[in-house]
């Protein structure tokens, strides 16, 4: 280390210039004097001195330049060595209080970690553009029913006529889909297939990762069967093997040659289309089917403009098999649609994390303020000794920077862990979240939030030290600055209280939502009903009798299993029943335009209601002969009966959907959450007698045996009957219902964790402030006690000190909660996002935590012995 | 014969200035006079170059300056050599000596051998 230098203070540019002038003038005078001494007349001497010197002006300039550069370097090296010295001092002083330092850094790291992890996810899912050519031009087209808010895929035929007439697009490509059975030695597996034309990858601007895409020849009937693997499936099943091209997979018992692997960008929802395992060429003759059309906008055309044009063009299209209802075409930006579900969960979480970060930051500010107060005498001394304001300011900020950097570093580590956990427990809405990693931006985020978080404290200290009068600080401990510090601390308590309350309120709303959902009447005995989804491949069970035979034999075997009290068949159970569209007609009534046209439906065998424990409120229900008589009978749900036959029995009445066959109502069943717990209540539902002419069926088993035990046994039974029949899924209705709200639960758990952390941080902040206040007022309290104040009044004195800022904070927090409630509205249902009871409960909870945090310092104050307090000074 | 400052080999000004300062701190005018006396006027180093050189050396950290009182009791800027400057002087003089002796060796050579 270089020894301390003593030198003149920093010199200004003007000073430097005058020094150069003075130096040169001295030289000229000395030369002139010498000349005069040798007999030259004074004026002549001066002239010659200047002439002999050479380029005087140039020398002046050069010297000044050198001096300025030198001065600049000195300034920088001074600054750096000062900063370095301060930092070393600070590090040493922080190291002397390891617990304080660790608390500050740890608190900050908590906020930084959470913020970095969530921001990384948000950026990956919501903000990153799709890695497709001109992704902003891509739009997803659909048919939309305004009344039911349901979207449908348009048929290929319709899309074809759009692509001929619509002028706002440069092209349209449609993705079809199909369910297939992939068989291998390890058994049969049901997979989704996306079906595309030979133009798709060019159109999207994302070439196949491996091998080739499809050709026009691939789509012609009778050509050799080919398929592409999705990136995820290729990795999962083939371990990312590059030698996969040319291998054969059996789809629906037909060998397909693998010709390529699709790029990873397509392993996500595209509109309502879930990611698929395999891709195949769209058969040229698929015109009647429906698919998901993706369009490319012409420059200057917006999705809204295109929607207008589509609706104009579409008015003339009449389709023979179109579902009735008011279906109108609409277009939305692909980018927005692909992240729609994620936004609903990510934005509230980001908001929550911002609050947590601010609270953590306020807590760090508490700690830094505490240290600054402890250092007050030192600061005063330095200031009195002439330390510049800038230098003192730097000391305050440097500590914050040090804590911030520590917090950022630790936070980055924490973010890694949190990110891994978030990805592991990701809800379906964040399905796209697979390969997200901490990157350079995450580091910038961590550093930024860390420094930002610590700076709140740094800035407060700096602002204070700027105003501090050294004499006041040196003279006494109880001064205006002491009080000012307390004001700052209480300000921080107000801030923390307000933000914590907002988080608590959010957590409370979500908790009430979850509770409501948990208690929701599910109609069926959700815990005991196991739904086994089977797929009936055409090539194994070619017709209805074969399927029926298989189903009957399977049911008989399952019925004989121990712990199984009933077996039945259904096309779907809550929350995965089917849906149907078409205007409702009731015999003998005119429903008009307001007729409902969107229904949940399920085809069930007669025993379904008994097996599922679903009460049949009225009517005989289906008999054994119902299935054979076609769809001429139906069972409606209670809501249906309530809306259309409020004062009479609907049994025996007839209704039909979309002009189809008339169906006689033979029963009224209790309501079920047919489409999921998160869907609005009051869904109309229809049950039909099961027919066997379908490729999928659900075996509904009522059992008291846990699924872990039942599962393998069921697999053995199905495999024993036919090992080419795949089991798609097996789960209790409870598990299915839980899964239908997993996004909401995910949000709830995270926000509850954030709120918990926020309350702990705020309470510890409050505790610290009150402890400090009690310590400061020891003398005053001692005098009160000496004068006969009873403990209760002393305790109240301290409690009051804490409750005032908490009260103010709660008042602000209520307003903040109200204002931010809209952010949560997508995750909250069954409860108003501005629920007063929840808000009151959150405020009450926070208040009681605050009381506990205040009680300790308060009771300590009552134990202050009078004499000691008086001597404390 | 009078050599003009510009005719001095590059880098020699620095070494002359450092040498001048190697005993005592001096002001610019003092250095100028010392150089004239020492070289018997052979080095007609222009004062302009001298001052530019001094400021350059200061920037390089080889000399430092301080204001003090001159012989005539006027405020004058005195330069003194720093430890780095001394080191530089040592190295530069060695190099110049080697250069000069090599040069003389060549100049004193007695005709090329056939």
Account of the 3D structure:
The complex is a heterodimer of chains A (about 850) and B (about 110). Chain A has about 850 residues and is of the alpha+beta class. In chain A, the strands form 3 sheets. In chain A, strands 14, 15, 16, 17, 18, 19, 20 and 21 form an 8-stranded mixed beta sheet that branches. In chain A, strands 3-4-9-6-8-7 form a 6-stranded mixed β-barrel. The two termini of chain A are about 40 Å apart. Chain B is an alpha+beta fold and about 110 residues long. The model of chain B is unreliable at about 1-5 (pLDDT under 50). In chain B, helix 1 (about 10-20) packs across helix 4 (about 85-105). In chain B, the strands form 2 sheets. A 3-stranded antiparallel beta sheet of chain B has the order 2-5-4. In chain B, about 55% of the residues lie in helices and about 20% in strands.
Structural class of chain B: alpha+beta
Major pleated sheet of chain B: 3 strands, antiparallel
Structural class of chain A: alpha+beta
DSSP strand content of chain B: 15-25%
CATH homologous superfamily classification of chain B: Winged helix-like DNA-binding domain superfamily/Winged helix DNA-binding domain
Q: What's the end-to-end separation of chain B, in Å?
A: 35 Å
Order of helices and strands of chain B: EHEHEHEEH
* First and last CA, distance of chain A: 42 Å
What would you say about this model in short?
The complex is a heterodimer of chains A (873) and B (114). Chain A has 25 helices and 23 strands.
